[in-house]
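Progress note, project year one: complex with calcium ion.
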Amino acid sequence: MGTQESNQVAGGTGRRALLGAAVLGAGSAVLGLSGTAAADSARRGGGLKGLPVPTVIGHRGASGYRPEHTFGSYQLALDMGADIVEAGDLVPTKDGHLVCRHEPEIGGTTDVADHPEFADRRTTKVLDGVSTTGWFTEDFTLAELKTLRATERIPANRPHNTLYNGRWEIPTFEEVLRWQDEQTRKRGKQVWIYPELKHPTYFRGLGLGTEERLAKLLRRHGKDKKTSPVIIQSFEPTSIQRMNKLVGNPLAVLLSGAGSRPYDFVATGDPRTTDDLITPEGLKEIASYAQGIGPDLSLIIPRDSAGRLTEPTTLVADAHEAGLILHPYTLRNENPFLPADFRKGTDADAYGDALGAFAAYFATGIDGIFTDNPDTGLLAREDFVNG
Ligand code: G3P
Ligand code: CA
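Model obtained:
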């Protein structure tokens, strides 16, 4: 991404019942109930039931406007009104702290290359089967990482965001948990976060298992319950299975595009791909340990060879039938990231018809969406629920 780049509502128990209510919220909108009524219905009760549907999730904060995974980005997402902030993608340091970066390699999102004292840390590693050169969080202590500053990942697309290069440091997940509490108090409204475990098999192989570290932090902060405002996601199903044994939080399995294979499956010799996981049987199995899925948007509405949207798949209905909610990723305002039918004008990186794209995806009945532009997503939701 980037350039890198049978609803059990009534009578259900535990997590399934919680998620079922969220599914009902989406279904109500699809069935034509007023959006306000659907949202009000979804707000009753605790946990996920309290989230508006479709839920607008600030992807890496408000990363359309600020360098991703910084407190500047997270704060702006909240200021814009995002229902949940993806704070953050989690990777470990050498001394075992969880920090917020999209991947272990930090050459693309920090000023590490400008630090001569770290020049000899530049190296090449095989990350999930891919040869990767740069600087890796697992080779730095937290104290060392804190001397770096975040920078914009895609300056060619988002030159305005480079204004903020160097302004913010790399957040730790423990700082995020404290920030969540502070912001909840200040705003008088529960702040939700949506951390993702990145490359868990890779890090476990280095002796830096991340699931236990995440569980320990959540417990320490009293946020390890099924009603805690923290949803945990991972592209590796076995990582989510591990989290299911460690904590009670809502869990979501991320799904890459058709034909792709989760890296934990590669490592263990499990031959299944995303195509197997999105069958009714595959979804039923996921629902035995998770409450939601985070599919690539192409699994909701595939694109044709020209990049235009085609017909929606049955994934929304199939996932809801299995009792799972769907939070697909990632919608961005700029032309290069939009389906071809929503691109506008001749300026390659100008905004296209992002509102139209949100409307197309919301119409499928998804329960929420990750977006770099939470303000646009919220306007689109307003149009959708009032339309
Ligand atoms: O977490 C949802 C989405 O963020 C997954 O994609 O690559 O941006 O982490 P990625
Ligand atoms: Ca993510």
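The first helix runs from residue 14 to 30.
The CA atoms of residues 336 and 349 lie 6 Å apart.
No further modelling is planned for this target in the current period.
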